[in-house]
Structure prediction request, 304 residues.
Amino acid sequence: MLFGGPNRVEIDYGQTPGSASFDRVTEQRWGLVPDVVASGAGGRLTYTYTGNVTSVNDRNGNDTNYTFTTKGSGASATRLATRVEVFTNRDVRGSGVDPVSYVTTCSYNADERICSRTAPLGDRVSLLYDELNPDRYAQGNLVELRRSPNSREDGSVARAGIRDLVNSITYEPVYQRVRTLTSPRGNDPIFVPPSPAGSVLSVDFDLDGTDNNEPGTTIRKRRYTTLCTYDYQEADAATIEALFVQEDVLLADPPKAARALALNTDLNGDGLSGDGSLGSPAQLVGRKIEQRTPNVLRPVQVGG
Prediction:
């Protein structure tokens, strides 16, 4: 109500038990409702339900169909939109100019996380998660975000020749926080970085103790990686390995990963050095103490 006046919003629900629209919104009216009824002022939206498709007619008369898939059952069931079809029923650019509709599709993994979104022209965003990680808490980590172009021609540019833009991510194993983030330039097999090779710092992406034998690890990838360091890494390898046990961290080779993470130095100068006897639990809580972007030597380091 508006200061005792007519309703500003009214919502109708399906009233027929057993019908597809029962207890679902069938119509919304926005604005001063008498005006909406008389002239359409404010806006009216209608909803119809057919199987797993919800059809919406918006206040401007545009029609859109949303297709859902159901995960689970009963009260825990989740409906995920897998297809959105926007119709050009109003012919706003003239009859026959546009296709009948534009379709966007989405896919999901078993944990109901979105894995891909394909736009009407075919350009696609793909998301890859660490689903095979033995640590259940790590399986939701996004490890790759890939943007793929569509293949249509735009003037004189054939987009089929454009390479994917790929961001890759790794996580530290204790608190599952982002450890490395590599930008598309770092994952582009052709791009040549401007930084001298000697100024680019090493990165052990998979914590195996070396950055020389990992597939795809190049100076380019290291150069365009943001490297984050966390408080517990100031400790020595023995302390970090004990932290793995305390936090039930699942790793293929805990001693090797602990050695790769251990800096054994007071990196941020807070007086809590990583000497194996930190004395303060606060040093092991996973606070970020350094973020290096770009991953190269500072000018003072280059100059000696």
Summary: Confidence is low (pLDDT under 50) at residues 300-304. The two ends are 73 Å apart (CA to CA). Helices lie at 33-39, 219-223, 237-246, 254-261, 299-302.
